[in-house]
Amino acid sequence: MDRETLHTSSGLIKIPRQTHQRCSSHFVDYIEKNMSYSRFFKNYLIPNHPCVFSKKFTEEWNCRKYWVTEEGKPNFSRLLQQFEETPVPVANCNVKEYNANPKQIIPFKEFIQYWREYIQNGHSSPKGCLYLKDWHMHRNFPEHNSYRTPIYFSSDWLNEYWDSIEVDDYRFVYMGPKGSWTPFHADVFRSYSWSANICGRKKWLLYPPGQEEFLRDRHGTLAYDVTAPMLQDKGQYPHIDKACQPLEIIQEAGEIIFVPSGWHHQVYNLEDTISINHNWLNGSNLDIMWQFLQDELASVQREIEEWRETMDSWHQHCQVIMKSCTGIDYGEFATFLKIIANSRISFLNSYPASNSLQSRHLAEALESLGPHHATFDLQRVTYILESMLNNEDFKRLDPSILKFQPEALLQEIREATRSSV
């Protein structure tokens, strides 16, 4: 990030987001050649706008060279050599379970055997349409070096945090036959996502933030399949007339799609397809994550409001329930911010020789993005921490939950950024 972009983005920090966006245009930028990170930041991250990168950006990836046949199909033989006995999560696209597809863990070789038979039978099977999805291949096989995250997506706080605590990650491989699909949803914590087709083609249906409210039934349940005829029943979906038409994107082999924060989407594999998918977030959409957590907590509080006067620890129970539903609570969110802030402070204090960072990949990412980006990150953490300190539910947290003093962290940030702005 350059200094001009830092100053421009700093002025946008406190501008409120639009809660309901219209599908004003069905045009999506197609990026055919390298652009500066600052341009991507200003044109797509900050305005939260989708785009598609050409296959040029993935042509050197090992997975595109070795996981794909000359005919552009999945190279089953090569994949089996690498992952034959690996247990993988497989969903059945023909079965609905709580607005998702139920999963089972099976050996990779068993899924490939199924996939081969599925193709031979004209893309059908009595077992249903199975889809290998949410496989943590990167975490399980870090030495494979199958791909390299483009610089545009390298400011990735989500995976930086989970890597630091060695619990989880949000980097996935998807493999599915023609006809497999993912129901209507928005990504975890309202994160960004990027998805690269290693082979095959996908169709994406995307709705900007707020449009999903018109796609709920009369009970408030979000649509499972936005193409289902039942959505035209105004008795069941009373607000369907207010919903715009989705943004439809056909993603070709090798291309990367950038899905902005909070955009609900539904995805189909038009051919036998392999893709790399990351969920990620950073300072550009941190406010969206914080608002999402506040909305989730408010929803939990409404659900158990009747027990409020009978439970001494009602507020703490709300936090527990929220974490079970979303994967994070206010205490962990604060810890998340602290870890990000500490790494940026360490980077600025030692720049340009940032050897103090434990992760080589993190150090490389911060070096490539530069000190202005680290300063922007700290500005965003400051803004959200200040908002949290004024939040009544955050004030009610048991002090023992927080392992640091937010006020002290804010002072550290101010000292670190004083000479950078």
UniProtKB/TrEMBL annotation:
<feature type="coiled-coil region">
    <location>
        <begin position="290"/>
        <end position="317"/>
    </location>
</feature>
<dbReference type="InterPro" id="IPR041667">
    <property type="entry name" value="Cupin_8"/>
</dbReference>
<keyword id="KW-0408">Iron</keyword>
<dbReference type="InterPro" id="IPR003347">
    <property type="entry name" value="JmjC_dom"/>
</dbReference>
<keyword id="KW-0175">Coiled coil</keyword>
<dbReference type="GO" id="GO:0005634">
    <property type="term" value="C:nucleus"/>
</dbReference>
<dbReference type="Pfam" id="PF13621">
    <property type="entry name" value="Cupin_8"/>
</dbReference>
<dbReference type="GO" id="GO:0043565">
    <property type="term" value="F:sequence-specific DNA binding"/>
</dbReference>
<keyword id="KW-0560">Oxidoreductase</keyword>
<dbReference type="GO" id="GO:0045905">
    <property type="term" value="P:positive regulation of translational termination"/>
</dbReference>
<comment type="similarity">
    <text>Belongs to the JMJD6 family.</text>
</comment>
<dbReference type="GO" id="GO:0016706">
    <property type="term" value="F:2-oxoglutarate-dependent dioxygenase activity"/>
</dbReference>
<dbReference type="InterPro" id="IPR050910">
    <property type="entry name" value="JMJD6_ArgDemeth/LysHydrox"/>
</dbReference>
<feature type="domain" description="JmjC">
    <location>
        <begin position="138"/>
        <end position="297"/>
    </location>
</feature>
<protein>
    <recommendedName>
        <fullName>2-oxoglutarate and iron-dependent oxygenase JMJD4</fullName>
    </recommendedName>
</protein>
<dbReference type="GO" id="GO:0005737">
    <property type="term" value="C:cytoplasm"/>
</dbReference>
<keyword id="KW-0479">Metal-binding</keyword>
<dbReference type="GO" id="GO:0046872">
    <property type="term" value="F:metal ion binding"/>
</dbReference>
<dbReference type="GO" id="GO:0140096">
    <property type="term" value="F:catalytic activity, acting on a protein"/>
</dbReference>
